[in-house]
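Task 17 of the worksheet. Students: predict the tertiary structure of the chain below and write it out as structure tokens. Keep your answer in the requested format; marks are given for formatting as well as content.
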Amino acid sequence: MIKERVLGCLEAGDVNKDSRLLMQAILDYERWVTMVKERGRRHSCLRYTRILIDFLYYVIHNGIPWEDMFNFDTLKAFQRYSGFKWARLALESLSDYLYRQGRINQSLRISRPKHHLPEVYEHYLLYHKQTLQVTQETIKCVRRILIRFHGYMERNALALPDLKLEHLHSFLAEFKAGRSTLKTYRHHLRGFLKYLYHERGIIKKDLAGLLVGPPMFTQVKPPRFLHSEEVKRLFLSLKTDTPYDILTYAIVHITYALGLRPVEVSRITFGDISFRKCEIALKDRKADNPITLPLPGQTIRAIALYIVKARPQSRQRHLFLTSHPPFRPIDSGTVQRVISKAMKNAGLNSTPHWLRHTYAQNLLDMGRSIYEIKEMLGHQDIQSSRAYLHVHTRLMRKVLFNEEL
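Model answer:
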């Protein structure tokens, strides 16, 4: 089908050598995609067919030479001309194929220009990454929001010192997004506003506390955790038959025993663990809040089993590595997937963070104060720790009714 449509372009007018090169490139790309086994790539090609034909007409009509077809000026001009939602992705996919074939010098996807924000924004991103120890994906998310916010400021000829609450609400009103997405926008904007007020003194009023969404009383949910019988079911379901089973066994034990975030589990190194003292030092932690925690005997045995039976031979100092070469430290997403799969195998309808919440409940049961829990969980704000008090039924009944359950 695409072949007939490409050949039909011959009737559009004079077709020069460069346009014929693009015709052949589109035909070769279509043949290559049909040979690829991935269903998603074939589906994308069908979606891109109309776009690539439209691009061919555009090139012929404007007499664009081959060397100028796959640059960002042409891409932007074609996006304005075509109005297709997937125009950028279609041309990036075609340019990827041609780049791998050696037919163009650089792929549009590889050479995609980065958005450089003004200095104060870039400094905030660096500050945010260093102080909160967040992942690179989080920084990318914050950058996308700040790019849009900076664009809003420029369109309205606003400077940061002139920023008011009504400007923030006007910016958020531009987005036809769901409640959870707007909540994310407000959260990251509040962080930037705090930085502008407390660290740089650029704005004269702390607007962060005023930037709130509509009341969400019906959606307020306390942290959810595993009950004792669910914890038993989870650990009874763990196996040690394969290297992956042993990896799962060690990660679940560490997360449950220490209440760590997935990113903290992924960052553990051999230098953090003292087998002689039965301790682990968490240095690279969110909010720059290092702490040394005791390691239970069962957790130490789980770590030792992983090192001896499942960990690949590598000079890497990180404890947990990928199972296939080149062996690299696992990321937080892998930790979440490992725990989620273990919970699913145990028949639990829960998420990895439930283990962290369960750890907090265990601390409350042991009589630890809310301030101790804040330090052990690595919370930046004690309000995050207070949330656990709302679900500690036994403690509440003991205080209110002098009852022991």
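Marker's comment: The two ends are 72 Å apart (CA to CA). The first strand starts at residue 273 and ends at 274.
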